[in-house]
Design brief:
Layout lengths: L1 E4 L7 H10 L3 E6 L5 H5 L4 E4 L5 H8 L4 E5 L10 H18 L4 E5 L14 H11 L5 E7 L1 E2 L7 H7 L1 E4 L6 E5 L1 H12 L7 E5 L2 E4 H12 L5 E4 L2 H9 L4 H13 L7 H6 L8 H14 L2
Parallel strand pairs: 1-2, 1-4, 2-3, 4-5, 5-6, 6-10, 7-9, 8-12
Antiparallel strand pairs: 9-11
Helix pairs in contact: 1-7, 3-4, 4-5, 8-12, 9-10
Length: about 300
């Protein structure tokens, strides 16, 4: 099949691309960087350079593809709300998909996309899915990963300095985690299928309570006295504002609030996805490297 992928050589595509090439697909990868073209082409695929802000470019890149793989990528412009940025991107994707006469699309969405504004930044994916579904004669698979193990790198400074992992929900709550290899597996499987109607597939590697998470991080990072610290929403927001723009910090805090909802994972559990092969211990070397770089 002829496939067009958004996402350049990101964490997930670094596993998705080789798997699709090994299966014999004719793959084109969209990148915004001319400098990445040689690296992309070394993988045995085509590179197409342009911006996902450009609907005409997307239309050209999608034309002739049997299926395309899209995602929310890039950073919102300064001062732009993440939800509005996602809405605008989904509109561009929808227009390009229709104009390019594409009938099969795999969209990298997120856990929480079945829910409302109460889940903060994750609500972006709810809006994007609804916009994409409005395209006529297109069959979508929405791949919804849970929280990325790699995001724990953002906690390395407070873990190193305070010996605490801060969250605005209790350690008793069990949360889902995933590695890019396991997301890529779901994406590749989806691109190789032609369902008769839209479907949803979740990607998850491991379930961990806060206590499990702290125990594994304590052992892997060499911080035996690491503890979980439950903070208020306001306290967590203040922490996030130190490293993120205020609007994005608020959205991220609300996303974490969602973990307190007893039905946050209800749709995932209804789909009963098989756990992937990766575990937190497998990504610990990367987290340890991030930890060691903290001053």
């Amino acid at each position: 099949m002829k496939l067009t992928l958004v996402g350049s050589l990101g964490h997930i595509n670094s596993f998705t691309i080789p798997a699709l090439v090994a299966q014999g697909h004719d793959v084109t990868v969209i990148t915004s960087s001319e400098a990445r073209v040689p690296e992309i082409e070394q993988l045995g695929v085509h590179a197409q350079v342009g911006s996902i802000e450009d609907t005409a470019f997307l239309t050209d890149a999608f034309t002739g593809a049997d299926a395309v793989y899209i995602m929310l990528t890039g950073r919102p412009a300064m001062g732009q709300d993440i939800v509005e940025a996602g809405r605008a991107l989904a509109e561009r994707y929808r227009i390009a998909i229709v104009a390019a006469d594409v009938h099969r699309v795999v969209d990298l969405s997120s856990v929480g996309a079945d829910q409302g504004p109460e889940v903060g930044s994750l609500y972006t994916y709810h809006i994007m899915e609804n916009i994409l579904r409005a395209a006529p004669d297109v069959t979508y698979t929405f791949v919804r990963p849970v929280g990325f193990f790699a995001n724990l790198a953002g906690d390395m400074a407070t873990i190193k300095h305070d010996h605490k992992l801060y969250r605005n929900f209790p350690a008793t709550i069990c949360t889902g985690w995933v590695a890019p290899q396991d997301i890529a597996k779901v994406v590749v499987e989806a691109l190789n299928t032609t369902p008769t109607q839209n479907d949803v597939r979740y990607a998850i590697s491991q379930w961990l309570t806060g206590y499990d998470l702290v125990a594994e991080l304590a052992a892997g990072l060499g911080i035996p006295d690491l503890t979980w610290q439950t903070v208020t929403d306001d306290e967590r927001l203040a922490q996030l504002k130190k490293v993120l723009p205020p609007a994005f910090a608020l959205s991220m805090m609300k996303s974490a609030q969602g973990q307190r909802k007893p039905d946050f994972y209800a749709d995932l559990q209804a789909h009963r996805p098989q756990l992937g092969m990766q575990r937190l211990k497998d990504v610990m070397p990367q987290l340890k490297a991030a930890f060691d770089q903290v001053q």
